[in-house]
Structure formats: structure tokens, C-alpha cells
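Subgroup meeting minutes
Present: P.N., E.W., G.H.
Scribe: E.W.

1. P.N. recapped why we're keeping a running log of single-chain structure predictions: easier to compare across weeks, and new members can see raw inputs and outputs side by side.
2. G.H. added today's entry (199 aa).
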Amino acid sequence: MCNGKLVLAIMVAIDTMYLLDWMDVEASELPFKGSKIGVHDSVEQLLYLAAKGDIVIHISRRFLTDKIQDRNSQRRERDKQLLRVLSSRPGVMLKSSTLAFDIGWGRFASTEERCLERLLEFILYPEGIAVGEEGHWRNKVSDVHHLRDAIVSRCSHFLSEEKRFHDHSCELLRRCGIRILRLADLLGKLEAYASGHQP
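Output recorded in log:
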């Protein structure tokens, strides 16, 4: 409790697909329809909670690297501008000094981070990740890096719709101390928590 206000002290990492949907709606000059509107509104609700100081939102450095390497120059510039807007929002943690971190898998990672990557790879992809294999191996590497960043940054929750994360959520909590939740589930929990603690 701080100045009569309940402090949750939750730091959350948010998965790429939520941010991409938010960016698409933000950048659109026409009224947007479909499921992305719901995701956009949920991200805005999360940003509102961050502005209130209830949570801190961590943007993965892997996400930043993916965006600056986008081969579509127009989309890359658009997304960089949106990231600047996002980073100016209160409660959003986005460090530009880490932009070059993931050029090359684990190339600049510390020994501890590489060990964590191997553990996450074993949990998520026990069959292994063969560079160049069919089946979106780059996406698998990106999954590992997103989770690594969240854990190293001491996030308590990782927000994602990715089925593989949820399939291994118990083991990720037990071995890495991070909870896997969908964005809508976290917002529901925070709303119920706040309602139950109102004077």
C-alpha cells in the first residue's frame, strides 16, 4: 500500500502478435474491422493500467530487433515511429540500447542467458531447433528469445496466445518462474483483484 493506493507491482512481457495488431490499427487511416480491434482495445486497456502505475509493460528486445530488420522499408519506418510513440507511454519499458542484441542467435548473450536459452529450447522444443529446417525455425528461435528477455528482465507474466507456451506453462512456471497468460485473462484477473480490494 502506497499513499492509500494498492500497488500490484506486476511486470509483464507482451507477445509480438498483440503488438502487431495494435500497430496495424494505430497506423490505419480507415476504420478497422475484425478481431484486431479487440486486441487493440485490450492493449490500450493494458497501457491504461501501466499509466496508472498498476503494472509495467516490458517490450522484448527481440521484438525490437525483428522490427528494425523488416525488409519492407515503408513498414519498418512506420513501425519504428509507432514504437517511439509506444515507448513514450507511461509504464512501458523499452530500451533502445538493446536493439542490436539479437543479430545472430545468442551472439551477444551472456553465458547465463545462453544457458537459459538452452533450457527454454528444451522445454518448448524438446525435438530441438535445427537452423535452416523447414517449419519456421526462425519463429522458434524468436519464441525462445522473447521468453528469455522476459525472464532476464524479471517479468512475472508473459502474455501470449501461442499454444506451445500454454502447453508448457506449468513447466515454465516451475523451472523459470514465469506465468503464461492470455492478455484477456490477465485483464480479467486485474479487474477482479481491484474490485475485491476496493474499500
